[in-house]
# Entry
Amino acid sequence: MYKDDVKAYYDYTLNLYERFWHGDTHAVHYGIWDDHTKNLHDALLNTNKFLTDQAGIKSGERVIDAGCGVGGSIFWLVKNKGVEGVGVTISEKQLSKAKELSKRFGIEGKTEFYLQDYTHTNFPNASFDIVWAIESVCHAVDKRDFIKEAYRILKPGGRLAIADGFLERNPGDILEKKRLNNFLKGMALDNLAEPKKFENALAETGFKNIKNLDKTEAILPTAVKIARMSRWSWPLSIVTNSLGLTPSLLVHNNRAGIDQYYLFRNRLLTYRVFVAEK
# Structure
């Protein structure tokens, strides 16, 4: 099943993200850069801040992170905005790590983490003020399944806040098609949504006051860093895979890391923030 591929990807890469990427941000996503951003650490946290500002998140609101990773965004929101944080993931390893970190930070009383599929949760209708999703909606085979579930569990006046990659245009030649396929395979993606179709799906579901913000230029410095890391780790992963030390998943992921910069730079993909109100 496709969902098993997504789970396997995040289970295997959990320690790699921790060692080579997020540090104490615990952020499994791209960083948004601006004039005040000094380094990747700041950029990763800036993604949280930018999405928070766009959605107008306030103290005391109940936020669910749909595809929460190890809890990085939830921890930031609880500490910086005083929200009640709930996270869901399909990865047992991510769930265990999120609970461990929550306890370490002394905020387990303000957070909840569950092993659930964000397209079909067991939360009652109108349970949350905010549905938050950074680079997780991309994994839904039918993005409308996520949108409909988000609408169901949001309170009236609640907001949906998304940051993710989207398919801006179709590949122009065989090489672009190969690069796109490499990216999809290496990131455990079945498909990527087209921005306009995604925006239309939000409106058709009932969302209003929809904001569609193109932040591609702001994530390009992050894309450069990923590509540089992947250029040396890709050949190494081929060797370790041939020796039976690491899975082919790692080879494909490193290849995707190289190709993602080309895809964003040439706007075959765009990185967008969507905010919408129920």
User: Anything to note?
Assistant: The longest helix spans residues 216-242. The two ends are 32 Å apart (CA to CA). The mean pLDDT is 95. The beta strands are 62-66, 84-89, 111-115, 128-134, 154-167, 208-214, 269-277.
